[in-house]
TrEMBL record:
Similarity comment text for this entry: Belongs to the UbiH/COQ6 family.
A GO term from the CC aspect: ubiquinone biosynthesis complex
Required co-factors: FAD
UniProt-listed InterPro entries: FAD-bd, FAD/NAD-bd_sf, Ubi_Hdrlase_CS, UbiH/COQ6, UbiH/COQ6_monooxygenase
Alphabetical UniProt keywords: FAD, Flavoprotein, Monooxygenase, Oxidoreductase
Example GO molecular function: FAD binding
Protein name: FAD-dependent monooxygenase
Pathways involved: Cofactor biosynthesis; ubiquinone biosynthesis
GO biological process, one term: ubiquinone biosynthetic process
NCBIfam families, alphabetized: Ubi-OHases
SUPFAM superfamilies cross-referenced by the UniProt entry: FAD/NAD(P)-binding domain
Subunit-structure text: Component of the Ubi complex metabolon, which regroups five ubiquinone biosynthesis proteins (UbiE, UbiF, UbiG, UbiH and UbiI) and two accessory factors (UbiK and the lipid-binding protein UbiJ).
High-level lineage: Bacteria, Pseudomonadati, Pseudomonadota, Gammaproteobacteria, Chromatiales
Keyword Transit peptide: no
Length: 407
């Protein structure tokens, strides 16, 4: 049996970031992952995330950001419009005195960069292709049986194992969920016109289509969310017919669009754990919540979770307190639940608002968006929240002028 301080289940971006943030404390840390180790051969921009400046500041602190940025594409403008009305809104980094609004990053590249940084810490052990057979919790520890024979006794266990979290289900933490009744089609496409470092999103009657710029000036990653019937139709189309449908859906904003990779689809559901902890077990990121990708905030939300938890654990260790006590974990839960709930409600409002086909509602929607577009102060407030430059952020994610110690 091995005794460890912290066990992180899940070696996605959230789990690896948490381990890397905690590694300098000198605690013994084990990361358990059922899949393979991150590998550069899997970097293909098929699955990407939009990272905001708050996430960039956090990942810069870990030392992983330069490697992530090397294959990422920054974007300095955002264009959002409604295909069914005259509603539109634009955001420009120059108007906010910024160099960029965010970065489109390959999910596997994020993992590879974090993994390479973690390999420099001898107090962190990573176990890949690992199966967890049981989790048994006592008042002081969590007993983890892995690979049918190995036993770990951990003071704290963190579930960072995604939307289908084994940790969450094993601890019987209640889950609220609903189906968005949409499929998200993802693919890399080639564009006739250069994307000019602009992220674009159009709200269609069947769901939003995002065109996210990639390092090649004439390539984008698409996230096309639509109802299951429409998704099935699109996936069954020959490539040329799909290209025509995609070009029409985008209003030819980048000219003729062509598939560069085979499109794939996955279902969209909202998941929210009503309790994020039980004893010495706590959830972070997608294990605790998942939201609609229409605003591209899922990865940012999860990274802020681990930054918040790492901040509180670090503070406890520095003060000589127990980093796994329930009172500390409850502080984390209250802090991050408020942020998650706000974003879940906002995403649901956006989805419902843009799926309403009533003429009067479409008119109100169009007038509202256009009015916001003409209100610089209001736009600045919206973009500050989206970029992670406002709100109750963990200190490592705050702009330098706002860094504070959380009491």
């Amino acid at each position: 049996m091995q005794n460890v301080d912290i066990t992180v289940v899940g070696a996605g971006s959230a789990g690896l970031t948490l381990a890397l943030l905690l590694a300098p404390l000198g605690l013994s840390i084990v990361v358990l992952e059922h899949g393979n180790a991150p590998h550069s051969d899997n970097i293909n921009h098929q699955r990407v995330s939009a990272l905001n400046p708050a996430s960039m500041r956090l990942l810069s602190h870990t030392g992983a950001w330069p490697a992530i940025a090397a294959t990422a594409q920054s974007y300095s403008r955002m264009q959002v419009w409604d295909a069914d009305s005259f509603a539109n809104i634009e955001f420009d980094a120059a108007n906010e005195r910024l160099e960029q609004l965010g970065w489109i990053c390959d999910n596997e590249q994020i993992r590879v960069a974090l993994y390479r940084q973690l390999q420099q810490h001898k107090n962190v052990r990573l176990e890949f292709n690992c199966s967890i057979n049981s989790l048994v919790q006592s008042e002081r520890d969590v007993l983890i049986n892995i690979n049918q024979q190995q036993l770990l006794l951990s003071r704290l266990l963190v579930g960072a194992d995604g939307v289908n979290s084994l940790v969450r289900s094993s601890m019987q933490l209640p889950l609220t969920h609903w189906d968005y009744e949409q499929q998200a089609i993802v693919a890399t496409i080639t564009t006739q016109l250069p994307h000019n470092k602009t992220a674009r999103q159009v709200f269609l009657p069947t769901g939003p289509l995002a065109l996210l710029p990639l390092p090649d000036s004439q390539q984008c990653s698409i996230v096309w969310s639509c109802n299951p019937e429409r998704a099935a139709e699109l996936l069954a189309m020959p490539a040329e017919q799909f290209n025509q449908a995609l070009t029409a859906a985008s209003n030819s904003v980048l000219g003729v669009l062509q598939l560069h990779t085979q499109p794939k689809a996955f279902g969209l559901k909202m998941r929210y754990a009503s309790s994020w902890l039980r004893g010495r077990v706590v959830l972070v990121a997608d294990a605790a919540h998942s939201i609609h990708p229409l605003a591209g905030q899922g990865m940012n939300l999860g990274l802020m979770d681990v930054a918040a938890l790492a901040e509180l654990i670090t503070q406890a260790v520095e003060d000589g307190n127990d980093f796994s006590e329930t009172r500390l974990l409850r502080r984390y839960e209250r802090w991050r639940k408020a942020e998650a709930q706000t974003l879940i409600v906002a995403m649901e409002a956006f989805k419902r608002g843009f799926s309403n086909k009533q003429p009067m509602f479409k008119l109100v929607r169009a007038v509202g968006m256009s009015s916001i577009n003409q209100a610089p102060w209001f736009k600045s407030k919206i973009i500050a929240a989206a970029l992670g430059n406002s709100g109750d952020l963990p200190k490592l994610a705050q702009p330098e002028t706002k860094v504070t110690r959380r009491g």
